[in-house]
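Before going further, it is useful to explain how the protein records used in this thesis are read. An example of such a record is reproduced below.

***
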Amino acid sequence: MNKGKAKSRDYKVGDEVSYALAAGIRYGTVVSVFGEVVEIEFEDGRKEMKKVSDDRLRLLRRAQSERDDRDRHRQDIRELYRSEVRRR
């Protein structure tokens, strides 16, 4: 009987993850996904394969889609345009 929160086990390329070790925590980015295994590039440049079911692997932040980036950029341009119009 699992009373805890359901764990997210679906990783995507570009997701930021942490991996717990006895000596500390390593942070990295998912480079590729092979079914139940993910390849992670850590901050120090090393790449390692880890099982998705490993409890030491945690998702920190989802990868942003290109559409989100474009929408954010367009919003920035609109705000800049509005500020220029107000100055005139």
User: Anything to note?
Assistant: The beta strands are 16-21, 24-34, 37-42, 47-51, 57-61. Residues 66-87 form the longest helix (22 residues).
